[in-house]
Amino acid sequence: MALDKRQFDMMRDMYDDRRYQSQRELDRKTEEIYAAIPAIRELDLRIPDEATKAGLAAIRGDNSLLETLDARIAKLSEEKRTLLRVSGYPEDYLDLKYVCDKCRDTGFIEKTDPATGSLVKERCSCYNEALTKLLFKDSNLNSIIEQENFDTLRLDLYSNNPEDTDKGLQLTPYENMLQVVQKLKEFTANFDNEFNNILIYGGTGLGKTFLSNALAKAILESGHYVLYFTTCSLIDMLAKYNFNYDEYEKSEDCRHDSLYTCDLLIIDDLGTEMTNSFVLSELYNIINERILHKRSTVISTNLTIGQLSDRYGERVFSRFRKDYTFVKLIGRDLRAIL
């Protein structure tokens, strides 16, 4: 995934700070050891001297010192470790310590490309872990998706009574939810290879927001940038961005550019906002731009298909009809059961 500038800067700054703190701690330890064991300072001064002597000798045509340089430096380093040990310090006390030894706090590991033989950089596992934490935080869903995900979904809450069969779908609420979950899991499994958008609709209390959160968690865990907004909070941010930029910049949800660049945008409760020409224009721009750039969007709504068409007009609804998979939830309000 491509990070936006803010995320890139945050990751870069985090690794810069790791290296700075490690070097600062090493500098502190070095001052301590120089004061306690002056002989180690002398050894540290001799190491660059040896390299300088070998270089000057090589310029004059004598490579003997250069050929034995590594061995002499290794001997001086061993003397340092011995002095540390006999003075009661760990032998590696003056080694630079990293949070991650694999990448040495750079976030990247160099590997040889078997196809070309050239060195390539790939993200270290520590970078992916830190990035995932950042993405979870950025999603606006950091806490709720721990409670609402595919593992905690209770299918037993949906009726399998034949009397509750939906006439249009010819499915009970339970049978329908089984198919819905399967469809959403296929969406997550194929996220990197197939462009798709989903519109989840149905009455109140049927689990639309729960399913949106479950999707978000699954996509986030695969290392993608997911951004979640209720429609009202989205419109509020857009209004601040367009009409009160100073307030927008102070807002915790100042992620206007990410609306277009995040891997998955979730818009929850479409239809609860005050609809006017500004709202219709902004929604169309977001939906259309994301389609053009093949960035997936998931929308949930209590509105029926007819109500969606009437409320948002042909310009917006045509995008839904052409580029979205419609997922219908049926049954009774689960909030009356729980």
Structure characteristics:
alpha/beta, 338 residues, 5-stranded parallel β-sheet, 53% helix
Fold blueprint:
Elements: H1 5-36, H2 38-59, H3 64-67, H4 69-86, E1 108-112, E2 119-123, H5 125-138, H6 173-189, E3 198-201, H7 208-221, E4 226-230, H8 231-243, H9 245-250, H10 258-261, E5 264-270, H11 277-292, E6 296-301, H12 305-323, E7 325-328
Parallel strand pairs: 3-6, 3-7, 4-5, 5-6
Antiparallel strand pairs: 1-2
Helix pairs in contact: 1-2, 2-4, 6-7, 11-12
Structure overview:
The structure is a single chain. With 338 residues, the chain is α/β, with parallel strands linked by helices. Helices cover 53% and strands 11% of the residues. It has a five-stranded parallel sheet with strand order 4-5-6-3-7, sandwiched between helices. It has a two-stranded antiparallel sheet with strand order 1-2. The protein is built from twelve helices and seven strands.
Strand line-up of the largest beta sheet: 4-5-6-3-7
The major sheet is characterized as:
5 strands, parallel
Helix content: 40-55%
State mean pLDDT (0 to 100 scale).
88
Residue windows where pLDDT falls under 50 for at least 5 positions: none
Basic shape:
elongated
